[in-house]
Amino acid sequence: MEVFIWSIGFGIIGIGYFSIGKRRDQPSFLYSGIALMVFPYFIEGLMANILIGVALALTPFILKRF
User: Fold this and answer.
1) Looking at the chain, which terminus has fewer C-beta neighbours within 10 angstroms, N or C?
2) Which helix (H) or strand (E) holds 45?
3) What SS3 state is found at 42?
4) DSSP state at residue 26
5) Nearest of 38, 46, 32 to residue 4 by alpha carbon
6) What is the pTM of this model?
7) φ, ψ of residue 28 in degrees (nearest 5)
8) Confidence of residue 66 (pLDDT cuts 50, 70, 90)
9) In 3D, which of 65, 9, 1, 63 has the Cα closest to residue 32?
10) Per-residue CA distances from 62 to 5, 7, 16, 31, 32 (Å)
């Protein structure tokens, strides 16, 4: 049940990133948003779900810095 809740949360963040990336023409947000919406379908474990989701959520900010 926890994996489902985390997946929904990352999906909501992904929708936000996708819309920001599309509106501002920022590919890092666009692709991170797509990845955040899709990856929970392929990952089953709770800890893996959280780690990958947080990494994908931070990716646009890390890429923006470098």
Assistant:
1) C
2) none
3) coil
4) -
5) 46
6) 0.91
7) -65, -40
8) confident
9) 63
10) 26, 22, 17, 14, 12
Task: Please state, in angstroms and rounded to a whole number, the distance separating the CA atoms of residues 34 and 39.
Answer: 9
Q: What angle do CA 13, 19, 21 make, to 5 degrees?
A: 100
Residue pLDDT, tens place only, 38-53:
999 999 899 999 999 9
- Taking every pair of Cα atoms in the chain, the longest distance, rounded to a whole number of angstroms, is 37
Q: How far is CA 9 from CA 15, 50, 63, in A?
A: 10, 10, 22
DSSP-derived letter for residue 43 is -
In the chain, alpha helices (H): 2-24, 27-38, 46-65
CB under 8 Å to 2, separation ≥6 — which residues?
46
Q: If you compute the radius of gyration of the chain from its CA atoms, what whole number of angstroms results?
A: 12
